[in-house]
Each structure stands twice: as structure tokens, then as C-alpha cells.
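Record copied across here:
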Amino acid sequence: MMNQLDYLMIEKFLSEIPNNTEVIGIGIIFSILLIISFIKKIEKIIIIILIGLIIYAGYLYYNDKEPSEKEKQIIEKPHTLIKK
């Protein structure tokens, strides 16, 4: 249970945060690290997707077969896939 003194200490600390350059610096560094880690994860996802697309393109090139009638119909009239 928090007593009145603890409450006042927390309130004082929170009111001093905007004036404390150390806390602001730590916050900026933390934000930058968070952004960098997010970008690295996105890069990994993009690389995995590109590798998958390259493998799929190679597969399609290697098979070298004509699309079926159903696939041609879908390519020519994609709105037929949507049921009203």
C-alpha cells in the first residue's frame, strides 16, 4: 500500500521528467533503438518474401507450361471471381 510520502515522491519525479535532460536522453536513445530494431525485422521479412518470389518465378520458368482454361478465364475476366 502506498502512503502519502510515496505518492508525493512519484508525483515530484513525474513533474521533473520534462526538465531532466538525462531522462529525455535515455528516452530518445530508447526510441532510436526501438525504431532500428523494427526496421531490421521489416528488412528480414522483405528478404524472405523476395526469396520466395524468386523461387516461385524460377519454378514457373522451369515448368514452362501453358495456363489452363480456368486460369486463362481468371486472367481475362477477374471480376467473375467476385460473387454478387
The two ends are 61 Å apart (CA to CA). Residues 28 and 34 are 10 Å apart (CA to CA).
